[in-house]
Amino acid sequence: MIHERLLALRRVMEQKKADMYLVPASDFHESEYVTDYFKAREFLTGFTGSAGTAVITAEEAGLWTDGRYFVQAKEQLPDEIRLYRMGEDEVPGIEEYVEKNLKEHGCLAFDGRVVNAVWGEKLKKAAEKRHGTIKTDEDMLDGIWKERPALSCEPVWILDEAYSGKKTCDKLSEVRAKMKEKKADVHLLTSLCDIAWLLNVRGGDISYVPVPLSFLALTEAECIWFVQSGALDDAVRGYAEENHITVREYQEFYEYVKGLEEKTVLLDRSVVSFGICSSIPDSCRIVDEPDVTALMKAIKNETEITNIKRAHIRDAVAVCRFMYWLKTNAGSIPMTELSAAQYLERLRKEQEGFTGLSFETISAYKEHGAIVHYAPVPETDAAITGQGFLLVDSGGHYLEGTTDITRTFAVGAVTGEMKADYTMVCAACLNLAAARFLYGCTGKNLDFAAREPFWEKGLDYKHGTGHGVGYLLSVHERPNAFRWRKPEAVMEEGMVTTDEPGIYKEGKYGIRLENELLCKKGEKNEYGQFMYFENLTFVPFDLDAIAAEKLTDTERERLNEYHAAVYSAVSPYFSGEELVWLKDATRNV
Amino acid sequence: MIHERLLALRRVMEQKKADMYLVPASDFHESEYVTDYFKAREFLTGFTGSAGTAVITAEEAGLWTDGRYFVQAKEQLPDEIRLYRMGEDEVPGIEEYVEKNLKEHGCLAFDGRVVNAVWGEKLKKAAEKRHGTIKTDEDMLDGIWKERPALSCEPVWILDEAYSGKKTCDKLSEVRAKMKEKKADVHLLTSLCDIAWLLNVRGGDISYVPVPLSFLALTEAECIWFVQSGALDDAVRGYAEENHITVREYQEFYEYVKGLEEKTVLLDRSVVSFGICSSIPDSCRIVDEPDVTALMKAIKNETEITNIKRAHIRDAVAVCRFMYWLKTNAGSIPMTELSAAQYLERLRKEQEGFTGLSFETISAYKEHGAIVHYAPVPETDAAITGQGFLLVDSGGHYLEGTTDITRTFAVGAVTGEMKADYTMVCAACLNLAAARFLYGCTGKNLDFAAREPFWEKGLDYKHGTGHGVGYLLSVHERPNAFRWRKPEAVMEEGMVTTDEPGIYKEGKYGIRLENELLCKKGEKNEYGQFMYFENLTFVPFDLDAIAAEKLTDTERERLNEYHAAVYSAVSPYFSGEELVWLKDATRNV
Questions:
Q1: Measured between alpha carbons, how far is residue B319 from residues A465, A563, B275, B540 in Å?
Q2: Which residue among A438, A448, A451 places its CB closest to the CB of B460?
Q3: Where are the beta strands (DSSP E) in A129-252?
Q4: Hey, is the C-beta of A522 within 8 angstroms of any chain B C-beta?
Q5: Which of A230, B227, B306, B338 has the greatest number of CB atoms lying within 10 Å of its CB?
Q6: What is the pTM (predicted TM-score) of this model?
Q7: Residue B460 to residue A527, Cβ atoms within 8 A
Q8: pLDDT in tens, A3-18
Q9: How high is the ipTM of this complex?
Q10: Contact assignment for B436 to A455 by CB distance below 8 Å
Q11: Which residue in chain A has the smallest CA separation from B461?
Q12: Quick check: A483 contacting B, CB < 8 Å?
């Protein structure tokens, strides 16, 4: 089937005189998760991972993805598609591949709407090194993909101030003040989460991210929201009017942009598409800066923080209940990766304010745990028997915020090696959470706190230590992160970041442990403003997998303190046998 | 006296219609240490610190310096010069001060030869915000400073390949290859250490840095060395000829630059002066990049590494001998900060290949230790009695390399607080030295390893954790460093970096402990190339100041392993009572 699709695409490429065609996994908004309409790369290659780009020529087909997906891609890709393991030695990057493999004077084609401007420019330059051209005005899969799903158009709804903590008009004023500083006439915003945050609306057009498809153009006088009219009811229309938001049709944004003349346009070229940026008239001046809303929405306000803490307690109750069920029943009742994930989803649904999962649950038994972003499907769904590890990375959206938690559970006997690994991951997680640091530090400075126990042993994990988490928005939110190599944002009070080291032993097991951390101000003294993290996640680490003798005294104290906090946070919601179990699961070691 | 100098300068400023005059502590080469001719800021303000800039207006005089020098500046500056503590809240930076205090349409003046191009541009912009102008063609202190020392003109000498490890022609070829990559016709090099490294020459025109004053212009066909003819003997002239190096007079460089037409000029605007950059004709294109020699010289070659290890053993023998003498005699024979420093210098002079100190020895007793860059002078020279700490930060140049070591010694009774502090600093130093990390890490990633024990307690030190060290060049060498806030360079195999955490209690004492670390490649496995540090410095930490019970097991092991290595490295050079002492000073705790 993949073979036929590749053949069909190559026929279209020949007709259109494209020598190389590039298919990323993006939508028009640089969303991380995309609605089905945009899953062109998956349609073309069979690879279902959230990150990865296909490049097709007459002779070759390649897929580039990162360390999280190497194992999964190897399993899913047919032989005729070559896997390029990004980040490994001697594996060319995509631009390098274009430079080397586009034929002289050839044409590189991609849909300019699904490639951001920065990347599009790089691809253009790579093609130019072969004296080639680019063609970006067409989605060449349109004609081939007969059953392509329609663009999603779910109802938009308003997020009450009790949840958002800040009025839309105040947010608009703040963004306009920033525009003024930067002397911008127009601010183009295409990131769905930024628009939803700014307008205090939510929707349902993106898998796992409750936001509507839309674009936004902000000027001093106007706020124009380009959104599918079918997604708006009278309440939302009234709300827009009240807030002086002009509503226009989603697709009209492209025409609006073409009509800008002699304006100073503020936008983030790493987010806004190459198609849009290319269509801004030459008479305009572009001010290319990170969206100011990105930092504003990353710094949670007091209402959001209060809510987030509530959401996390509820979520923890569901996950603790799941842990009790799993630990009690694994090996004695039938369960699989999928059924366990479904059971956990049911427990979350029982919680007040739950609106949906924040990403596809990773429920990975034994060797599946080594596939960093494995998600079970019926064909791979493993039966959970009474041994080994089950890794569950999951999260929920609540009106009060979004959660992301990973626990790895011993569902029966585990070996000494497994315990040693689990204990190291646990110590790493708690080590970062305990970091105190001076204001000005970024995740780049702090990542070492989590990786030190790994690096010391010549080990590592091929993913970031942590990412920002949105408020009823994307579970992966910029700009805060714990990463040692990537660009960095100063850790600000009110930022929420995950802390999720892991170890992955291919063919054997995977262990990842993840808490969310709220950044807070500590003591201010002659040395400066100290900062620290407050833990938001309250679910026990699995003491059956802890080799307490391998912990240092400090690590042991941290673990015991954490478990005391877990007990204190969630025990009010438990009784009977579950409470007895919780007490034991959070005992001192 | 300072008062009269300020008055005289203000009279010149009035004549020349300058409303504000800026005096940095630099020479024509952005050297860190400058020869006496360039100590204009010291002449004007009385402040002797190596870093700091004076700004004078008709009404005010200010001095900006960083945390290392706050205490010292406060002591040395007269009341009429205000101290601006850089980095503290609400203290304006110099450009900010210019923006706020230059009068409307005023003139900001500075000598364009002693301000680098990047900074000069910023100052110009700051003046322009007041619709002001800049005047950069004059050193206004010239007429006032009657006894100004002449420009130094010490003999240049050739560094044999047995020490440099690489022929000049090979170094020139490598730089030319980099120029070709960057499509540069001319490379202008003004950093004295980079020129000395490239040409394998040394000199004596800069305090503590054995390099000659010179400029260099490199093209594909020519290597023109602008150097004082009085500094060259026949041997050096012959050597230049052999290596196809054209010698021209030092001052002719400015004319040479003005004569460049339609060339692509490679230079580092953060190093090359504003005066030089401004005089490059408009027909030229500037490629502004870090000097390629900076990275080349930071990565020591095998010959250099072998030599450096030898130099460090010799230096350690001198410092160990000093430690024995100090610990045996403090309190019973008369000694002062200065006499102790002189004693240590004598011990270094006994070592083979020693050519001079690599910086002014910091010998700081008791509360002087809290002044980060204190150096004793007769007026402050404290008698060392039998109690408290003596902090000694010192280093030597040897034909085989340059050393930099700090030890803090208990010269008698120390309190529990002092021991706890010493133990923390020692643990921090050993913690960073023990770091293993993946290739790609910079000092920004690793600094946390040293600061963690401080930050945990709400403490910090207001200086970098470490800096690169040159080979018979500057003891402070870019680009490698351990700093959490500053730009960063990847830690490469062959780089030498200091590891020097400290704690400073104003009015009480200071503790700093410093070793040098050589970066090496470790295991390469599925996770990547691991790196680690090899210790180069072999002098005991003072066990009289260690509270062993405050060390974790890991820290204790590290300390004992370090001391075993010290004993093994230097014991062959000791005998009798000294050897007995060394054995005890490196005992297990």
A1: 43, 50, 43, 9
A2: A438
A3: 133-135, 157-158, 186-189, 201-202, 214-218, 223-227, 245-248
A4: yes
A5: B227
A6: 0.92
A7: yes
A8: 999 999 999 999 999 9
A9: 0.90
A10: yes
A11: A527
A12: no
